[in-house]
Design brief:
Largest sheet of chain A: 7 strands, antiparallel
Oligomer: homodimer
Radius of gyration of chain A: 19 Å
Helix content of chain A: 10-25%
Largest interface: A-B, 114 and 115 residues
CATH class of chain A: Mainly Beta
Distance between the termini of chain A: 43 Å
CATH architecture of chain A: Roll
Shape of chain A: globular
Chain lengths: 213, 213
């Protein structure tokens, strides 16, 4: 077994430490974050920090980092109050990754990375046409994290746009059918295979697989 | 394409909505959260809400829900200031899932679910012996989310205990080698397969795979 303690972690070479810390927590949710400015310029960036915060009301959190060129994103979300999260598929994950490049202001990552905008009535922010699961959110809370200057945004899910037959009879999204990818660390992409679905756990009842309906 | 808007989302049958909202964001980081009380009673619960917050200082966030019986966990973390996150492997993921059952106070999920405690000098909270990637954290910030009564905990990574050869030469954790699982929704478990590792994206440079060293 290898052990690293606080002092040793801080002494690691910078890029090694970034790769290590970014990948420690395991596989992360992978989404394209779509926004639009008040001037109508769209922005798209790949993120791996979205997390489920609760189902009632339906809330997701995302982390926005100050040191990256995501300030357009934060400005857009604060000014329009809206944003979208869209899953990433193997056929075009390289295009999704390319949205992390630092393009000049005024350039839309939708255009340069070959991703198509999808708009729906009553919602300003653009969705990604090529995705199969698309979520529209309205900003509810902005939490500035003083320790490292990041910002946690909490949004309410107000739009769900899914391709046909992606949602099972009980409401669970079938991410294998949706071809949703996941990411570990900064740049390693994966496609999960189903292992099992387990029944609600109770004390004294042996853990067992859920019967699929 | 299927579309659900805010009013329709609120009108969904309760269990359907919970399953849908929980699974929308995609695959989630899967970890066992280990704590100990001031009286020495250990606690272990499976969580899918851990997220990377930053590498310098090395920070992770987790969401603690009030409505679940995880209050022991929150009490333990607040009183000792320490907790651990441990990855989940296919050989014993049913035991990990079983930690989500509501056991009476005083019962340790380590014992009833057959998971072995691992302690290291200088750190109070128990790690999971069977895991291959284990993270020790110290509590840095408690954020109460008023909208839904959840709590976001921000912790600093102060211990990394990994089985041998789980970390690549550049610092990235090899989660395929580590056999780390992921979860979608409440109860569906997956094992990812590697698709590709992409080079740092730059404008005007075609997206390409990173040469593995």
């Amino acid at each position: 077994m290898e052990r690293l303690q606080r002092d040793q972690i801080y002494q690691l070479e910078k890029q090694y430490r970034i790769s290590l810390i970014n990948s420690l927590v395991g596989y992360k949710s992978l989404n394209l974050l779509g926004t639009i400015s008040n001037e109508g310029i769209t922005n798209l960036c790949i993120i791996s920090s979205a997390f489920h915060l609760g189902a009632n009301p339906p809330l997701l959190g995302i982390v926005i980092r100050p040191e990256r060129a995501h300030n357009d994103t934060l400005t857009n979300i604060k000014s329009t109050g809206q944003y979208t999260l869209n899953n990433v598929l193997p056929d075009w994950y390289m295009q999704a990754h390319q949205t992390s490049a630092s393009y000049p202001a005024g350039v839309s990552e939708f255009d340069v990375c070959g991703l198509k905008k999808l708009y729906v009535n009553g919602f300003k922010a653009p969705f990604v046409q090529q995705s199969t699961i698309r979520i529209g959110l309205e900003l509810r809370e902005v939490i500035d994290i003083e320790i490292n200057g990041t910002t946690i945004l909490i949004g309410e899910i107000v739009q769900i746009l899914s391709d046909d037959q992606m949602i099972a009879a009980d409401g669970t999204v079938d991410h294998v059918k949706a071809k949703t990818m996941t990411v570990a660390g900064l740049d390693s992409y994966f496609l999960p295979e189903f292992v099992g679905r387990l029944a609600y756990a109770k004390p004294g009842i042996e853990t067992h697989e859920l019967k699929q309906s």
